[in-house]
Amino acid sequence: MISNPITYRTADGVRIPGTWRHAFICNGGTYFLTDLGIYADGLIDCWGLVTLDEFEQKLRSGWVATGLPEGAEASAHGLASWRFAEPHTRITPELLLAEVRDTIEELNGRPDSTARCLAAVDVFLADRTEENRAAARTAYLAVPETQRHYALGDMDHKDWPLQVLVAGPGGTLEDWSDEAVSQEEYEEAVAYFEEHARPTAGPRSRVPSDGPVTPHAAAVHLSHSYPRRRLDEPGKVALRSDYPAPVDIHGVTYASVAQAYWALSVDDSAAHAAIAAADTSYAARELAAAGPRREGWERARSAVMTMLLRAKYAQHPDLAEVLLATEDATLLYDDADSSFWGDNAGRGRNWTGRLLELVRSELHAQRTGIVWGTGSSAR
User: Fold this and answer.
1) What is the 3-state secondary structure (H, E, C) of 277-311?
2) Whole-model pTM above 0.85?
3) Which tens digit of pLDDT belongs to each residue from 238-287?
4) How far apart are CA 278 and CA 286, in angstroms?
5) 276 close to 259: Cβ distance less than 8 angstroms
6) Closest alpha carbon to 21 in 107, 118, 111, 115
């Protein structure tokens, strides 16, 4: 992206920085010119918040359009409408996805593909082996084609010196010429980099002493579902509270976390037994809604859910591996029945997602040898 207009969205009181760019969305055969929101937590707003993986699917399906057919109807949301005549675009699904990935890196203060390329060039200039040149060339080719001209910030030379350097004497350039790079051209490129050497040590940026503020892994979206049976390879559906993973709580076995949650929410032994024996978590929720709620439940429910999630992943190590595989990603948990537990496209509080992240952190703590005592302190 050439410019980075600043925007943000708010999720449960937390301000998440972002930016936007123009894009076309194809809906019902009409191409709508709209703003594509890109946020630091890895979510993209293309008429609904999606993860990077879901965004790629939107690109592949043509929902986020990079091809503009001749004669197709276009609209700018009440401002204007027209039909494409001789449309031309250089953007492809691969290029747009790469640019969006770079934008997310920039929003988090991490090196984007251009910065990684220039770092690889610095390594090559310090130790001019063919192995280091090949690494620099690979890094250069990873920069989106639409951004390569701007890599050096030099609109006179553009990326010519960069192409010559990574091609080497006898190599060929990507855009400038089909002829092999001469020794003279190569020496000119080396001289260019020596003359425009970037400082290797600048002012120290303030980095939190205990690690980065934002996650490095892209957000994971746990869509609402009603899993009815265990799967050999459940994937992220295993992280749903209603996934059939029995949990033993004080000697009573419940079919899932959701079923245990609803059973514990009622203050009546008969209702508790009926909910525990329900065929599905949906039926358990319906029974709980009709029963007498335990006094003070709304103030205790987060602690109860935390206890149940801890039990689930302690008693099912295979599912703990699924949770750990999400690394440090933000977990967005949809719940059509609750804006307290679900994120629900940014309109809910996402407490299930937050508590899953907490339990994941505890699992990582166990992996690193931090053993928790029976109280609140670690030993």
Assistant:
1) CCCCHHHHHHHHHHCCECCCHHHHHHHHHHHHHHH
2) no
3) 999 999 999 999 999 999 999 999 999 999 999 999 999 999 888 999 99
4) 10
5) yes
6) 107
Q: What angle separates helix 281-290 from helix 257-264, to the nearest 10 degrees? A: 10
167 with 192: CB under 8 angstroms?
Answer: no
Token pair 């509270």 in the structure block, residue: 241
Classify 63 in phi/psi space as left (phi over 0), alpha (psi -120 to 50) or beta: alpha
Contacts 24+ apart (CB under 8 A), 246-255: 246/315, 247/308, 247/311, 247/312, 247/315, 248/311, 248/315, 249/307, 249/308, 249/311, 252/276, 255/281
